[in-house]
Amino acid sequence: MQADKRNHLIDLLRIIAAVGVVLFHFAYAAANTHNWYYYICQCGYLGVPIFFTISGYCILIALQHAKKPSEFIIRRFFRIFPPYWFSLLLICVIVLLLRVLTGANSVAVLPKSIAGFAATLSLLTKPVTSIPTINWVYWTLSFEAFFYIVVYICSFFKKQYFTIALLLVTLLSIVLPVYKSGVFFFLGYWPLFSIGIAVYQLLHYSASEKLLPAVLLAFSIAGFYTTHQQFYYVLACFITVLLIVINHFVPLKDNFLSRLGDVSYSLYLIHVPIGIYIFNQFKTPVIKQNLFYCIPFEMGLLVLLIWLSKLMHKYIELPAIKYGKRFSR
């Protein structure tokens, strides 16, 4: 498979992971509600290890499309931050709207200091620092941003040393204790990211270049144990890897669901402020307890969120991506 071809499996995994996280947060918001539907939705948190693994797999494709490291990191910046900043603005509008309509803000605590605003704008909130996030999903973006920074630093090395540099980072995740915050916080989930890199290299590098990726794969697997990954995280990661390997030899064809992969990032960003901060206000105890009302309500809300995500992808994400490409050149 050529690196520049559309990978429909990756797109499918993206939307599956995003929808899983959405349903998980729907269930989380329905506290003390117990039924088979919410028990299934609670498994949606496994979208996080899927995201991290496919992100590691795809990062080398992004690196190949850049002619130099600076071009790579600039493109990553415009890929992540403009949609993220738009979602911040959306949360501020929702908080203001709820305060006007209800006289109180019960959804998100906005930063109250310059340091808080700066940390929020730059993704240096928890778990990087002690400053709390204002959206439940933002903590994963801090990990993604630091993953990209590490790859950016390693990309200054020539190809034969690039994987060695990644090996050293993975080794750090094995030998160092798990840091909940601080500069090494990202090592706690680094093996989920690095295994995606290793799989890409093993599938796309020549036979003479596969030794170091094989070692990186072994180190990543060892890192699952030393970073204390929960069993279901590891299982989701390995299933993702297995599907990627199968797809390499028997590629998934274009389909409706995989085409929704483009909106997964926007869906990930806006489902909490819109789906929870706003629409959870309308989810009465009767709706929460009665699946005859609950499932149609949440499926309808999911469809609405996907439609809004398409608009955000078209008018926020794509222009930012295109500008990032022009600016990096």
UniProtKB/TrEMBL annotation:
Segments forming domain Acyltransferase: 9-285
Taxonomic superkingdom: Bacteria
Membrane-spanning ranges: 12-30, 36-63, 84-102, 136-154, 161-179, 210-226, 232-250, 262-278, 290-308
EC number: 2.3.-.-
Entry keyword Acyltransferase: yes
One Pfam family of this chain: Acyl_transf_3
Protein name: Acyltransferase family protein
Organism whose genome encodes this protein: Mucilaginibacter angelicae
